[in-house]
Amino acid sequence: MSSLQELLAQRAEIEKKIADAQREERSTAIAKVRALMAEHGLTAADIAGKAPTVRAAATPGPKAGGKVAPKFRNAATGETWSGRGLQPKWLKAALSSGAKIEDFAI
């Protein structure tokens, strides 16, 4: 029966052989790929699937994250609400006291 030290040495030797074989196979595969790329005139971008794109001219339009025009106004205080997000407290209070949202439309 082998001792622990002998088994560990064998494992280290086998792991080294595995790493060497992987390196060799990798370099062979890289050489094959480079040869095929040269033969067909391919670039790394072609392989990655990234085709060169032409950017369109900037078109004027609303900016993302910009302000939205208000749609509702509190006549008493001048406060406004765009109609997006939660209703402001002044509008909730007015609606609960019987007012209609159309009364605040701008």
From TrEMBL:
Record Gene3D superfamilies: Histone-like protein H-NS, C-terminal domain
Keyword Cytoplasm: yes
Record bears the keyword Magnesium: no
Localization (cell): Cytoplasm, Nucleoid
Chief place where the protein resides: cytoplasm
Keyword terms of this UniProt record: Cytoplasm, DNA-binding
Domain called DNA-binding protein H-NS-like C-terminal: residue spans: 62-106
Family under the similarity heading: Belongs to the histone-like protein H-NS family.
Name by which UniProt lists this protein: H-NS histone family protein
Organism: Pseudaquabacterium inlustre
